[in-house]
Write a structure and sequence with these properties.
about 180 residues; alpha+beta; five-stranded antiparallel sheet
Length: about 180
């Protein structure tokens, strides 16, 4: 177990149950999965781009990502159905906790002009999505091997939650929010 998972079970879970008057621990908000997604429009013109993105995301996530394809054709973007347009990876269980710990303690403070995470990125179910403009914020990525700075989006899916509960859950596990 990671330090973050232990912190959740020993400190955050009892606080969440007390604050939101939850009687059963299984009804409390908990981390279900983390989805990392990279869209690559340039993959339509250069086929080797997807392989480079896959390598970088595999290093960041610790598992092999899958290639995403276009579901339908869009003529204004010169996109045909079935063409490769990005990569994604879903982290569950221990890998999700490891990623959250790495993000909260190492990557988030490295964001330029970081004053806390925006608190308006929750959906109605309490899931939190956040976009990053640079993949080089992750310390595992070697800057010399990066061909181009690319952005990525990660979504933290929190089970049994609402936006208020999710925000409190993320605060208790160490993710700083703007004041």
């Amino acid at each position: 177990m990671t330090n973050l998972n232990i912190l959740y079970k020993e400190q955050a879970l009892p606080k969440l149950m007390e604050e939101f008057e939850i009687k059963n621990a299984f009804a409390a908000p908990r981390l279900e999965k983390v989805v990392i997604n990279v869209g690559a429009a340039e993959a339509l013109s250069a086929k080797d781009v997807i392989e480079k993105i896959k390598e970088q995301i595999a290093i960041i996530a610790g598992q092999q990502p899958r290639v995403t394809k276009a579901k339908k054709s869009i003529s204004t973007f010169k996109l045909k159905e079935g063409e490769t347009i990005g990569v994604m990876v879903t982290l569950r269980g221990q890998k999700a906790w490891d990623f959250m710990e790495k993000f909260a303690k190492i990557v988030a403070p490295r964001i330029r002009d970081f004053r806390g995470m925006p608190d308006n990125k929750f959906d109605k179910l309490g899931n939190y999505s956040f976009g990053m403009t640079e993949q080089i914020l992750f310390p595992q990525i070697e800057y010399s091997k990066v061909d181009k700075i690319r952005g990525l989006v990660f979504t933290v899916v929190i089970k049994n939650s609402s936006p208020e509960k999710s925000k409190r859950f993320l605060e208790l596990i160490g993710l700083p929010f703007k004041k």
